[in-house]
Write a structure and sequence with these properties.
Two copies of one chain form a homodimer.
Chain A: H1 7-13, E1 15-19, H2 21-29, E2 36-39, H3 46-57, E3 61-64, H4 67-73, E4 82-87, E5 103-108, H5 113-125, E6 130-133, H6 143-148, E7 158-160, H7 163-170, E8 175-186, E9 199-205, H8 213-218, E10 221-224, H9 236-249
Parallel strand pairs in A: 2-3, 5-6, 5-9, 6-7, 8-9, 8-10
Antiparallel strand pairs in A: 1-4, 2-4
Chain lengths: 254, 254
């Protein structure tokens, strides 16, 4: 189980970890059942005990371990005495429905797991249907990413693909790519330019390097989020979330 | 210098650390000069060397140290060979102008330094004038907070005060407190209820515990950010940033 703390271990076993009461409650909400639960009786609060009961009732294998052993499996001090092991879902584009997906978040070589997790949470909150990770982005089942997603990782379909692969999969002319762009047009006016019959892809670049050349070339709409010149830029998770919220508020991509 | 990695050390010496090229560039932008710069020549890139030159020109004391020594002072692997020591500004309310402040962000017992840093960055971006930390919030000059602020810590005045002290300082009836609240009214309609002649305080509660009783009692306007029921809530930094961006976009609090 400890090997699942590394990307290599997760890849070999095709499993990942989710720790803490709130995160595991979210896995239940999304009907994403762990293959196994480890818990330390002495560390559980009432909410944790009730959660354990629900997993038991649903036929999930649960195993009591010592507080010390649990601390070795846990990545943070906030495990609250309970950790789940989950099977990694398939992340190839081929397993994604072409018809049901209307709005996609695309991570363009983002390495910060906290930002990506926060963006997954916003993406699920604002009705997006799919998250696509570029090959050089952080691995989708990284522990910090899973925790920052606050459980959204269990609710949002995940795929790994380059922007070219995504473009090919949906077919030329069927996709509209937008991104935060300091030289773009201002919200909310720019939203009028979106075509409701196309797949909307919201691309998020890394804070250091910006958008990749491959995404820049395909970019349809650059969105400038107006702000004071006293800061150079917004946090990537904040900028992406503001764009998703504006689209949600205007029922674009529904 | 290493003692500045802990809250105790920072409090004793009334100094804090800022590491990395981008962060130190922001300190220059805000004319917030370090009392001292440490650098490891072998680790500097061109941008770092040019930054060092600017500090030198402005009369900042700079000292070359070994890569190894620098690694001991740095808190991350991303120091890029340069670290600044800054004097802590006064954070008592008394040093804050009563007249020039129109919009305030209030951290209501938030302990997550990453969220607070991100919110400081958004607050500066969206034209707020002051950040107030409740006594049980994370310490304002925490290393992770400083890094997450992307330099906003150098640009935004900071105070430490309880909501009651803030209320007393500005006088009864002169302040309007708003906060994200799942049972509140929806954006953007609720913004019509804001009074332009009052000090606006945007209170941010912790994700676990929500708003404190003290803030709840004084709350004037609860703002619900509409989102899908597939997530329980938004990230605190995202929710606060969305509210600040909506106010900025509508020129409220200007």
């Amino acid at each position: 189980v400890r090997s699942l703390q590394t990307a290599k271990g997760r890849d070999r076993h095709r499993q990942f970890l989710g720790e803490g009461v709130r995160l595991l409650e979210e896995s239940l909400r999304h009907n994403c059942m762990p293959s196994k639960i480890y818990y330390a009786e002495s560390q559980l609060n009432d909410r944790g005990r009730s959660l354990l009961g629900r997993f038991r009732k649903d036929g999930v294998m649960v195993e009591a371990i010592s507080h010390r052993t649990l601390e070795q499996i846990a990545e943070t001090e906030h495990s609250q005495g309970i950790i789940g092991v989950f099977a990694m879902p398939a992340t190839d584009l081929g397993s994604v429905s072409r018809e049901q997906v209307r709005t996609v978040i695309y991570f363009d070589n983002i390495s910060d797991p906290g930002n990506v997790g926060t963006l997954l949470r916003s993406a699920l909150a604002f009705g997006l249907n799919l998250a696509v990770f570029s090959p050089h982005s952080v691995e989708p089942f990284n522990g910090k990413l899973v925790r920052s997603s606050a459980g959204a990782i269990f609710g949002l379909p995940i795929a790994t693909a380059s922007i070219a692969e995504l473009h090919d999969y949906y077919g030329n002319g069927n996709m509209q790519i937008l991104a935060a762009d300091q030289h773009g047009e201002e919200l909310p006016g720019v939203l009028r330019r979106l075509r409701r019959n196309k797949l909307l892809v919201i691309a998020i670049g890394s804070e250091g390097a910006g958008l990749s050349d491959a995404v820049q070339e395909l970019l349809d709409v650059g969105i400038r989020i107006g702000h004071s010149r006293r800061v150079e830029s917004l946090n990537a998770a904040v900028a992406g979330s503001i764009i998703m919220q504006e689209l949600y508020q205007r029922r674009i991509g529904k």
